[in-house]
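Quick start: what a row looks like.
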Amino acid sequence: QVQLVESGGGLVQPGGSLRLSCAASGIIFSWATMGWYRQAPGKQRDLVAAITRSSSTTYADSVKGRFTISRDNARNTVYLHMNSLNPEDTAVYYCHARWINDYWGQGTQVTVSS
């Protein structure tokens, strides 16, 4: 059974930072492409960042230079380091794994507000 468990969300002031973590089980993590998506109220779920098995990365234009995705294959964990957060980054953030099929975590809320 595949499980993706996110953690690290919360409330942060504009300009602040957060680190999201996603621990994966039930997949061969080192072979999977891992990603983070986000969904704000009333909007579609969009890709934020992704990292391939060879650690190539992709970012949405809106987060380039502010967010960094990384992976630790020894810990079966993918991270999203978020800096210079602004209110437009407020959303539920979902971990995604592509390994034969697509898998999703339950989501973690990130709220950027003063």
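That is the whole record. Residues 15 and 84 are 4 Å apart (CA to CA). The longest strand covers residues 91-99.
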